[in-house]
Structures are given as structure tokens and as C-alpha cells.
Amino acid sequence: MAKSNRKKHGKVYEVVIDKRRDRWNHWLVMIMFTLALLYWEALLKTSTVMGSFLPEMLFTLLFSVCTGGLCYIVSSFGSSRRNHNVRLFMLLGMAVVFGVNYFVYLQFKIFYDVNTVLAGSSGVLRGFLPQIRRLVLNRNGLLHIAAFLLPVLVYAAVGRAADSGSRINVRRAQEILTASFLSFSLAVGTVLCSPLFRLFYHDQYNFQSAVSSFGLVTGIRLDATRSMLGSRNEIAFSTEPAAEPVSEPETETKAPAEEKPVYGKNELAIDFAGMAERDTGVLRELDLYTASQTASSKNEYTGLFKGKNLIFITAEAFSAEVIDLQLTPTLYRLAHMGIQFTDYYQPASAGTTGGEFENIFGMLPVKGGSSLKMTAQYGNQMTMGNLLNDLGYNGWVFHNNDYMFYDRHITHNNLGYSNGYMGYGNGMEEYVQDQWPESDLEMIQGTMPLYLDAQPFNVYYMSVSGHNGYLPGENDMARKNWERVQDLPYSDEVKGYLAANLELEDALAALVTELEARGIADDTVIVLGADHFPYGLDYDAALGSMPYLSELYGFNVTNYLERDHNRLIIWSGCLEKMDPIVVSAPASSIDILPTLCNLFGVEWDSRVLPGRDVLSDAEALVFDLNYDWKTELGTYLSMNGTFTPASEDTVVPEGYVERIRAKVRDKITYCEGVLTSGYFDHIFGTD
Question: CATH for 301-611?
């Protein structure tokens, strides 16, 4: 009898041990997911954005606990073998996501949201395989691939023991969900207690800041949440504090005020307030916002270019430092004899298509690499293509790389240029050789005969000669022009960058020479802006640690505004006969479209564009999707929440910083609303 009782109690004891082991196995899987996520987040952070670890990694830890719990629950409804395979697959998928984002950052120096990665993936695989091989097939790339795969390999080797437990039950799921909920609540509560990080999580959210502050997984979650909210047509504008009037200093005697000419406003007869009474949802919010805006005034330069030809060039990876009297005399002439921009910026938000979107549409690409693609479904009334086409201009779009890259064969045929779009593969191959990158000189020389006798003409070029990499062994343009830069006091990478851009210089020299030879230089306007800073100069680098870019710029690049400074060219032969026009106030790429609208004297409404005519009375404001901004009074950096006055003598009115922050938030919200709703189709009566 005693022996039977001992046997019975032994079985009960074994059952208790098995239950406890089973319970700990469940928690072990959750911890395993959490540690893997935390490892990947730390690896991505140290390999890219660098910067401080606290409190950012604390937020990341708490969010990782929550994500780890959810991963465990999702992967615990099958047999132990099935669960093991599901978890292995999930870990592999997460390793790929982190790895892709690492290599994207290496190439573009910015994190791309999921939509941007997916939008550009097919084009990248088709057109940039050499660049991908350069990124991956080297010691640094292979080491990082191994590092991102490490948790997967460890789990494949030793994870079977943790997966030997029973299927999840209701009680165990409740325990894990409770732990996940508490961790998530603590994370959000901690974030909301910080005035700075609360902005990154809510009002001033952007994918870049979210990944840097809370981790990649949380950045993806917030991006997906905002996308779903956007699909429900929900937007909200800030209540913008009124600007306080700036009083003039008192003087003993006052000279009589000089009478200034009275100009009208750049606005159309659109009753936005009346539209708001009829519209609903996002359209109504956009109506109310636009109705609240003050139209900018016409000015002495309104219509200066009326009836003239336009050649607009988006120059691949162009920078202000390319402009040099000795090295690039034509660029120097155009920059200094045209309208002179001394404080210009090209926000780098979504690679080349993001820069093109800014230049063409006068908006920031709030949907990343998908922004330009989304315009294919709209009428795009507010582009120079459509605005000048309505005036009888002959229009062309040219690109000297693969015509289907980034779906340009769809988007660029929808910009309003009457003769459509030509790239390599649908006509451009007749004019340029098959090399990498292709020649801007060959493109412009080959295409000029198509339009020079078809005045008035309106031409848009997307160049490619300035594309990375820049060493002569991998870049045909750098190799072609190497002798012209080989004695310059720079590293080979920077010399290669300058050599590649000499092809653009030669293209412009040929263009200006031909315009002057035909006697139409005074009747033609050349506009040149970059798509983004030369991010291909540095691999495995981040702000504060970009040696080649800093070498090119001549100072250590530590923030986005420093990184994105650039130079805009607006030139016509007629300007060389006038007094210099100097724009010293901050300006950016979204100001190009409204400025050209004013200069060409087209019918337009300044209230519907977030940028400004830089020659008008509108308040100067440069901003980007990181919510950094700059005005004539100073600079605000969102990552540390600091405002720096322009000088020691600058007087900053009370409430000024909050007013501009609200203004920037509203402008970014407006860009998103216009892009997602087709607002211009609505207000111009084509929806």
C-alpha cells in the first residue's frame, strides 16, 4: 500500500513538474522573440543613426516586450513541430526586414517606410543590380547579413527545446497578453511623459524619427496605423496662433513713407468657404484650411517670363559645391547671373522620386516613394506641364535611364507635357550610349533638335550622370572626366563625384551655346534643381559621421538641414541685362512651382500650394518631413526640440516658435490631404 502511494504521488509530482516546465517554455518563447527584436533594433541603430541609446532603447525594449508577446501568441496554435517552423519563419522574415532597412539606409541615408520599399523594389532589382552587389558583396555587407541572421541560426539550433510544450491555452494566453499590454502601456505612458518624444509619436510623427526614437517595428506599426486612418479620410489641422505684429522701432524723425505699387493677389475666384459648406470629410477640412490662407501678392517680377520657353532639369545628386568658376563655368554663370539663391534647401525625403515630386508638384512626398506614383490617378492641374500646355506650349519629358524605372512611363506621361515622355527603351537609346550612368551631354545634344524649333516649348529633363558610385572603376562618367579632376585636393570618392557632374556641366554648356547661337537665349528659361543631396558618397555612415559628404561641403554634417542645403538655378539670358535678383531668405524645392507660376504669369492660386513665390511678400519658411524648419529668424531642429535664432541680435516674438511649428504641421497635413484625396481634381472641377 505504501509503495502504491509513493508511485501515485510520484506521478502527481511529475505532472506538476511538466506543467511548470511547459509554462516556462511558453515564457521562454516570448523572451526569445523579445531578445531577438531588441538585438536587431540595437544592431540597426548602431549601424545607422548612431546617437544616444537612452531613453530611445528603453522605449524600444518596452515595445519589443509587447511585440514579443504577440509573436508568441500568433505562433502557438499548432503542434510543437509546426510552432517551431512558424517561429523560425517569423524570425527569418524579421531578419530580412531589418536587413533590408539597413541596406536601404546605407544607400539613401534615410529609412524607407514599407510602401516606399515596395514601390521601388522592382525598379531597383531591374536597374540597380550593380549597386546592390556593391552594397552587399563586401566585408561590411556580408558581416551585417550574418549579424542579422544570427538570431535565426541560434533559434534553429537550440529552439526546439522551447517548442516542446503543449499548445497555448486560454490562461497562458491571458498571462502573455497581460504582460504585453502592461509593457505597451508603460512604453506609451513613458513616451507621452516626454514633451519631445510625445511629438514624434503623435503630432510630429514621421517614419525617420519614429525608427530612430522607438525602433523599426514601432515605426512600421505607426506608419501602418496612419495609413489606415488616412484610408478613412481623417485629417486634422492645428489651430494656428495668430502672428504678433512686429512694431517698428521709434525714431526722432520719420521720413515720409515711400509709396509702393499696389499689386493684386495671386488667387483664383474659388470660394473655398462655400465649398466647405457642401463638402464632407477630408475635402471639407482641406477647404477650410485653404480658405484660411492669405494669398501672396503679385510683384514687380510677375510675368517676367511670360511667353518664354522653359527647360527644367532635375539633376541627379546635384549639390551647391559642384558650382565652381574654374571647374564648372557654365553652372557658375547660370547660378550667379540668374536669380541668385543664397540659402536654398532640397529636402531628401524619398530618394529621387521624392525630389522629383517636390520639384514638379511643389509638395513634400508624405507617402514616400509611393507619392509620385499616386499622382498617376489624378489630373495634375498644378504642374508646369499642364499650366503651360493650356497656353499652347509644346511639351516634352526626357530621361536618359530606363524609361520604366520607378514607373516613370506611367507617372511622367501624366504630367501634362503634350508630347509625352521619352526614356531609355522608348526612344532615348537613339541618342545615348548604353553605359552606367548614361550621359547627360548625349541626352541634351540628342534631344535639342526635337524642340528648339517648336517655340514656345516646355521641356523637363531628369538627369542621371551624377548617380553613384563615384569611383572611376564603377562609373563611366567619372572615368570619362577623371583627368579634369585628378589633381584636385580631394579624396578619390569626392573627385569621382565632381567628375560625374562635369557631364552635366558639359550638357549645360552645349545647351546654352545652342540657345545663344539661335538667338533665343533671352527667350528661354533654364531651371535646375537637385533631387537630393549626394547620399551615395558615404556608405555605412550617418549624420555626424559622413566623411566624404563633409569633405565636399567643407564642414561636418550634423543635421538634416545642413545635409540638404543646395543651390537652385533660375536663369534666362534676359536676366543678365538686369540688376541682380538675390533671394537671401530661406527657400526650398517646394517653392520652385509657385515662383515659376508667378514669373510665367500663369493663372494660379497661391493658397493651394504649401510653398511660396520667393519674390512675393509671403513669409519665408523651409521645412521637411522631419519637422525641422528654418525662417529668417532662426532654425528649429525637431530631434532635440531646439530653436536657434539667426543671430545674437535677432528678436524672436513671443509665441513665434509655437506658431511656426503649428504652421509646419498644417502644411505637412495639407500635403498628405491633397495627395490622398485628389483635391486639385476636386477644386478644379475634374473629379
Answer: 3.40.720.10
